[in-house]
UniProtKB/TrEMBL annotation:
The family this protein is said to belong to: Belongs to the universal ribosomal protein uS8 family.
MF-aspect GO terms: structural constituent of ribosome
Task of the protein: Component of the mitochondrial ribosome (mitoribosome), a dedicated translation machinery responsible for the synthesis of mitochondrial genome-encoded proteins, including at least some of the essential transmembrane subunits of the mitochondrial respiratory chain. The mitoribosomes are attached to the mitochondrial inner membrane and translation products are cotranslationally integrated into the membrane.
Subcellular location as annotated: Mitochondrion
UniProt keyword annotations, A-Z: Mitochondrion, Ribonucleoprotein, Ribosomal protein
Name of protein: Small ribosomal subunit protein uS8m
GO biological process terms held by the UniProt record: translation
InterPro entries: Ribosomal_uS8 (IPR000630), Ribosomal_uS8_sf (IPR035987)
One GO CC term on file: mitochondrial small ribosomal subunit
Organism name: Emericella nidulans (strain FGSC A4 / ATCC 38163 / CBS 112.46 / NRRL 194 / M139)
Length: 170
């Protein structure tokens, strides 16, 4: 798991929302895909579509089926085209403000922060636990990499899971 690449993705998403882009692309990796699917589950982004260098059709990004919708086959993944795979993300806005206003890394590549369930309970309640600040804003989320995949902090408390703290989303 490369936290350097994840830091690049976080800064790219911050820049894309500041530029008011409708959709953007990030490099395809399993970590990026799982984090983006978790962000989509929590309503921060609208869609996640795997593709190549060219963006997929707009109705695929928006999730709107069409009458003439053909099944778009992606070319098979080979050693020569693995670097060209991208994840295309649809960004959400509400009343001209981005839903994903800020995403920041908590663990750094040189310092990985893990947390157990009791420390995570304090963070969810808004208190500081170790080096991790509590969740204070109403829409704030904290994402962890656990044995069961990437989960939000409140979900980890319910399922009694701890793990590596990845990023904080406002």
């Amino acid at each position: 798991m490369s936290l350097v690449n994840l830091a690049h993705v976080c800064s790219h998403l911050n820049n894309a929302t500041k530029a008011r882009l409708g959709f953007t692309s990030i490099p395809n990796s399993n970590l990026h895909l799982k984090l983006c699917l978790a962000l989509q589950n929590d309503g921060f982004i609208s869609s996640v579509v795997r593709g190549g260098l060219e963006p997929p059709p707009m109705h695929n990004l928006l999730g709107i089926p069409t009458a003439y919708d053909e099944v778009q086959e992606m070319e098979p993944l080979t050693q020569s085209n693995v670097a060209t795979r991208r994840l295309w993300l649809g960004l959400k806005y509400w009343r001209s403000q981005p839903v994903l206003s800020k995403i920041s890394m908590v663990s750094k590549p040189t310092r990985r922060l893990t947390i157990d369930v009791s420390g995570l309970r304090e963070v969810v309640r808004g208190q500081k636990s170790g080096y991790i600040e509590g969740l204070r804003s109403p829409g704030e989320s904290l994402y962890l990499s656990t044995d069961k995949g990437i989960k939000e902090a409140r979900e980890c408390v319910e399922k009694k899971l701890g793990g590596l703290v990845l990023c904080r989303v406002l």
